[in-house]
Amino acid sequence: MVLKRIVVLYFFLVIIFFDSCAPSRLIRPLDKGQKAISANIGGPLFAYDNLTIPVPLTSIMYAQGITDNTSVFGSLHTTSLLFGVAQTDIGICQKLYYSDSLHLGISLNPALNIAQEFWPQFSGGFKCWPQVDINAYWEIHPKKSFVYAGIENWFELATQRADGQPQTTHWLFSPQVGYTYTRLKWNYNIELKYIAPNLNNLPNVVDYFGIGGKGALGLYFTVTRKLF
Predict the structure, then answer these.
(1) Is the N-terminal amide bond of 142 cis, ω within 30° of 0?
(2) Of these four, 4, 72, 126, 228, which has the most CB atoms within 10 Å of its CB?
(3) CA angle 97–98–103, rounded 5-degree value
(4) Residue 85 in contact with residue 49, Cβ under 8 Å?
(5) Structure confidence by residue, pLDDT tens digits, 44-72
(6) Closest Cα partner for 152 from 20, 15, 13, 12?
(7) Helix, strand, coil % (nearest 5) of the chain?
(8) What one-character DSSP code corresponds to residue 56?
(9) What is the 3-state secondary structure (H, E, C) of 102-136?
């Protein structure tokens, strides 16, 4: 039983290394005072039983508009909990630019990703990764649905990896594109992300679907319920 948990945990930690575990949290700030909750599923694509499928990682998020240009958000990574890791990302979505004539906007999302292991047989302890995302979005059917493209940036502050070896990679970036279908109370989002193209994905215990042996393509689906 303990050996099985070790294998499962190792598999999970490898996934964490190649994946931020979640799609972009907020692309466009909420209206002032508006609240929203969301749930997502998805992750890096990998080979499983002759199929290429996304790792079914899940998380939930709460967000609230502070002003029309600024929103805050916080999440709980529900899959991580199953593997003995309490993980969250807490951040801000700030509108930097918007053109009324083009319906084109740019937003910045600074955040902190925090993880704490709580299985007593593993002592990985506390981890914190700063993150900064920048996205450009274009509204279609004015101020409703939109497409977007951007880049996610993770920063590794530790000097050593989990296996005790020196940490040589301190910046992990992931370009992303997506589409959000917006309704009055519900939003539906799909996002494709190229996770960590600056990292080799082989050799690895997971057969990731990357490009030229680099990184992994990730696919995510998100459902959001707006609370008025």
Answers:
(1) no
(2) 72
(3) 150
(4) no
(5) 998 888 888 888 899 999 999 999 999 99
(6) 20
(7) 10, 55, 35
(8) -
(9) CCEEEEEEEEEEEEEECCCCCCCCEEEEEEEEEEE
Residues 13 and 85: beta-carbon distance below 8 Å: no
Query: Residues 180-225: pLDDT tens digits?
Result: 999 999 999 999 999 989 888 776 667 788 888 888 899 999 999 9
Q: State the Cα–Cα distance between residues 203 and 218, nearest whole angstrom.
A: 19
pTM of the model: 0.87
Query: Are the C-beta atoms of residues 19 and 74 closer than 8 Å to each other?
Result: no
Report the amino acid identity of residue 197. P
Q: Write down the domain spans for the chain.
A: 2-227
Amino acid identity, position 9:
L
Among residues 196, 83, 179, 85, the alpha carbon closest in space to that of 139 is found at: 179
CA distances in angstroms from 50 to 46, 203, 207, listed in the order given? 10, 19, 11
